[in-house]
Amino acid sequence: MDSNVFKGKWKQIKGETQKQWGKLTNDDMDVIDGEREKLIGKIQERYGYEKDRAEKEYHEWSSSYDSKTTV
Predict the structure, then answer these.
(1) Residue 28: band (very low, low, confident or very high) from pLDDT cuts 50, 70, 90
(2) Is 50 exceeded by the pLDDT of residue 51?
(3) Whole-angstrom Cα distance, residue 20 to residue 71?
(4) Are the C-beta atoms of 17 and 31 separated by less than 8 Å?
(5) Residue 67: band (very low, low, confident or very high) from pLDDT cuts 50, 70, 90
(6) Exposed, middle or buried by CB within 10 Å (0-12, 13-18, 19+), for 24?
(7) Which pLDDT score, from 0 to 100, does residue 36 have?
(8) How far apart are CA 52 and CA 50, in angstroms?
(9) How many CB atoms are closer than 10 A to CB 63?
């Protein structure tokens, strides 16, 4: 998902994001505020992942989310 689209849809996808990565807190979601790089950083932090793994998970989820919401 393009970073501008991600930012624009943040309020809509925030809940789905938290379902995917349950260790992310409401405070984390406020800090992320629709910024893809911050989300990837928080995934790294909460799950202890390397950056590559966090980015891979984000991209897999993002692609899956895009395909579910495309009309």
Answers:
(1) very high
(2) yes
(3) 22
(4) no
(5) low
(6) buried
(7) 93
(8) 5
(9) 11
